């Protein structure tokens, strides 16, 4: 129970701000980016924005002919809801943290005691205090990555609904076996990033998040990726970056022309930090990759997907 009037007012103000921006993938992606521009010391916000862009592209990909023909409408809906639910849940947990940090800067004192009223884990409350006093931005990035993946682990990844309808079904199994999916860092001159594999593994997702963060802030590509994000509005369609590529694929539609706004039920949140132990390896540094460009290989795999679709149509 909040007793202090100022805290009570701030609490309800942040609830309104979070609700305003947690409408769909487009609004979440933009909110993360704008926060980073105002508070560049919180690098996780930029990582979250580029990963959220990828979630949007994956959502609208489902409307392309290969997915529509190869998988049933129910399978496609379940895949979309997996992306949407995880995207919504991470934002609903992380954005109040970012807003509390913003308010703490304004009043020049830590207000992280308020995070418990937003059901933020004890782990992150401690980490925000650590960041406030020591300004260890790399540790904060890793902590937020660890937190976000733990936040979605039980309610999404391990939830019986998603286990049955998504992670044990053919669309996910095929993408996992053939490494069809990747988190892309787009620039006007190429695509960088890393492949998604073993998504149901908590440690794998944390490692992927750290790898994407390491790439994002690599001085060889940072300015180019940021320039792309600032000059190209996120529509949810891969046409956002495919316009710079030499080959042409059928363009996925814009996200807001494809999906309605989804209303989520916010279940009682349990602190993951009280349910599972923090693993030391989650903080382990990920080595820099010498060749971060994956655009050519990624589109080779997409070529295979489209070729299979056309072959199936020709046979049938």
Give the structure's gist in a few sentences.
This protein is mostly helical and 316 residues long.
Question: What attributes does this structure have?
Answer:
mainly alpha; two-stranded antiparallel sheet; globular
Structural overview:
- The longest helix has 35 residues, at 73-107.
- The chain has 14 helices and two strands.
- It has 316 residues and is mainly alpha-helical.
- A hairpin with a 4-residue loop joins strand 1 (182-186) and strand 2.
- A two-stranded antiparallel sheet has the order 1-2.
- The protein has one domain (5-315).
- The protein has helices at residues 5-21, 25-38, 44-61, 65-70, 73-107, 122-134, 137-157, 160-167, 170-177, 202-216, 222-231, 239-242, 272-275, 295-315; strands at residues 182-186, 191-195.
- The mean pLDDT is 91.
What are the secondary-structure elements, in order, as H or E? HHHHHHHHHEEHHHHH
Structural class estimated from helices and strands: mainly alpha
Pick out the low-confidence regions: none
Distance between the termini: 64 Å
Q: Report the count of strand segments.
A: 2
Average the pLDDT over all residues and give the rounded result.
91
Outline the biggest β-sheet: 2 strands, antiparallel
Strand arrangement, major sheet: 1-2
Shape: globular
Strand content: under 5%
* Number of structural units classed as domains: 1
Helix amount: 55-70%
